[in-house]
Design goal:
- It is a single chain.
- The protein is an alpha+beta fold and 359 residues long.
- The protein has three domains: 77 residues, RNA-binding S4 domain (Structural Genomics Hypothetical 15.5 Kd Protein In mrcA-pckA Intergenic Region, Chain A); 59 residues, no CATH class; 181 residues, Pseudouridine synthase (2-Layer Sandwich).
- It contains ten helices and 20 strands.
- Strands 9, 10, 11, 12, 13, 14, 17, 18, 19 and 20 form a ten-stranded mixed sheet that branches.
- Helix 1 packs across helix 2.
């Protein structure tokens, strides 16, 4: 097993890697790149030089060209710096870094995940994560049950034990958990003809390399892709924008975002599906233009996990996470609807949807 142990805190990540036989004789910088692919070779070289990378049992300092050998151990330390900063129009965003506990019992902790917080450490996002925050605060292990895209805010479940996590994960995989998402979209008038509809386009990604993040869609009766189903209900719309709820029956990657786009309601702030893969890359690499920002209008896609109904919560009709401040502020500024009235309407729709066996 390549990772012998790892530990996270809000400020530092430490991992111990074992050298597999296939990496015997590999350069140290190339070995680290295998396990930290989101870090450039130059960053890895600087970490080796600063002694944040160490071959256990050998005198320091090491060089990027130093060879690693089968069954040796390599320790890597990563201290939180600015590599997880989020920028908008050239300015650093002030991120919310403390998810609020919405519900808790002996089996689970349910939090309202802020936008730009990862579910768990992955790639370069090692610190601003739900699991890292909870384990640091609670001083105990927590177990991911499902995940939300980093930009998506809202309800996220963490199991308290491996057993409870497996049970809850099975509920999701068997489509026994009812889910609701609030969204803000722009409107493509030619496609956006219905206010209530079910999207069944099949989804997959046939792309390679960096473009594999872009999900393609196929007609419902196609033999391509995987089945997917999302019910949509528009709560408000004018000539330019729409507010709505999405009820995904399946859980494919980017499902709501792609289905919304196909039916004429691309999500506000969605760099991939309101924009394009090239625009997504420009934002990712820090080269987004003024026109890119103007089209997106907000720093992240406007999707919020607003409701969950879990089978084994007999005394709780459903869980609800109020709209986050960034989406509320945009609504106050741009639409003739007050967030308080919208929240009441959303709760009413959730109660109807989660009480109905048809949804």
């Amino acid at each position: 097993m390549p990772i012998l142990e790892k530990s996270f805190s809000p400020e530092k990540y430490t991992a111990m890697y074992s050298v597999d036989e296939k990496f015997d004789g590999l350069r140290l910088d190339q070995f680290i790149k295998e396990y930290l692919p989101s870090f450039s070779r130059e960053v890895i070289k600087r970490k080796i030089k600063s002694l944040d990378v160490c071959i256990i049992g050998r005198p320091s300092p090491h060089r990027p060209s130093s060879k690693v050998y089968y069954q040796e151990k390599v320790e890597v330390k990563i201290v939180k710096t600015n590599h997880e900063d989020e920028l908008w129009r050239g300015n650093k965003l002030k991120l919310e870094t403390a998810p609020k506990v919405v519900f808790e019992n002996d089996l689970m902790t349910v939090v309202g995940k802020p936008a730009f917080m990862s579910t768990h450490p992955t790639g370069k996002h090692l610190f601003n994560c739900v699991t890292v925050f909870l384990e640091s605060e609670l001083k105990r292990k927590t177990y991911s049950v499902h995940r939300l895209d980093r930009e998506t805010s809202g309800l996220l479940i963490q199991g308290k034990t491996p057993e409870s996590s497996r049970v809850l994960t099975d509920f999701f995989e068997q489509s026994r958990v009812k889910k609701a998402y609030f969204f803000i979209s722009k409107i493509k008038s030619k496609e956006a003809k219905k206010n209530e509809f079910t999207a069944r386009e099949r989804l997959d990604s046939t792309n390679e390399g960096l473009k594999r993040v872009y999900i393609d869609w196929h007609p419902f009766d196609s033999t391509l892709g995987k089945s997917a189903e999302t019910k949509f209900k528009i709560l408000f719309k004018n000539e330019t924008y729409a507010l709505g709820l999405a009820f995904p029956k399946t859980g494919r990657q980017h499902q709501i975002r792609v289905h919304a786009m196909v039916h004429g309601y691309p999500l506000l702030g969605d760099k991939l599906y309101l924009g394009s893969f090239k625009m997504f890359q420009r934002f990712k690499d820090g080269f987004a233009t003024t026109e890119d920002h103007d089209l997106m209008e907000i720093p992240r896609h406007a999707l919020h996990a607003v409701g969950l109904k879990i089978p084994n919560l007999k005394d709780v009709p459903f869980l609800h996470c109020p709209l986050p401040s960034d989406l509320e502020d945009w609504i106050k500024t741009n639409l003739p609807m007050h967030p308080t009235d919208l929240d009441k309407l959303v709760k009413k729709e959730l109660h109807e949807a989660f009480s109905s066996p048809s949804k």
